[in-house]
Amino acid sequence: MTRCYNFCAGPAALPVPVLETARDDMLEWHGKGMSLMEMSHRSAEFIGVAERAEATLRELLGISDDYAVLFLQGGASTQFAAVPLNLLAEGASADYVNTGQWSKKAIAEARRFGRINVVASSEDTRFSTIPPRDTWSTDPNAAYLHYTPNETIGGVEFHWIPETGAPLVADMSSTILSRPLDVSRFGMIYAGAQKNIGPAGLTLVIVRRDLLGHSQPHCPTMLDWKTAAENDSMYNTPPTFAVYLAGLVFDWLKELGGLPAMAEINRRKAAKLYAAIDGSTFYANPVEVPSRSLMNVPFTLADSSLDKPFLEEAEARGLLNLKGHRSVGGMRASIYNAVPEEAVDALIAFMQDFEQRKG
Predict the structure, then answer these.
(1) Would the CA dihedral through 121, 139, 176, 68 be positive or negative?
(2) Which end of the chain has the lower number of beta carbons within 10 A, N or C?
């Protein structure tokens, strides 16, 4: 079997060692006569898996006991509603920063549950920039400030953490675990798993414990973080196999050298790809240089009529899922943790060859 290089924005590539371990465990987990997928989530075996996954994640990110770590379902999009339902009291308002399509979705959903103040937006630049902090019109009495550190569609990223007096809330679906992070600066972090954590179907929530127990009266039980925390993420049956796979990913990161080592690899991958784009008149990246993402690299061809042959030839060479999001077009290479450096090298070699033949 020959594996291709997968540049999908999500569900994204998983580390080969993780897949190999999961393959070997699939039919029978640790001599128990069944797969972990078939075991009760109340069993000692699965509880041990979940506890180890949480402990390793806490070690990787330096998460203190002041925070609850929750393994939930519903994707980051469900947390668009859960955030205001848990943090936005009646009559209060919340601040949001709009830097792309996922920010817009979070804002639209939050407005269903309370007053939302968009403190800054880069929509006038077609989401190719990050609004400077001194231009934000924040409310000193806001219940929280929400932002999206990395926008997968537009390929823009915050390379700094906003200072705010209100609890800081972040949708880190496409950037978490890609580098070290000071969790103590956040009130709440959430992330869909299908980028850097594991398979689709699992959602990670890291929430400061003093923010639990303040949900709106009509908050559904399944969206109440306090309920999830009090039940160790097992108020209902959790996505057991996804938790197991996430734990394997956390182990892989730890064995690699942790997040500092992963950050160095990611910076190197992104620098190579941006250098190839910037050194060409055939390819272009629309994002201002200081706001470029390390995880999602959009680029266009000088002649859009060549988009289709570019994708066809790339796929023939085992370079998959390079088509840009339907809302922006062009190409996009998502180079998450599990995308190896040789995949980026192979993509660059193909791009240069294609340019020589078509440019």
Answers:
(1) negative
(2) N
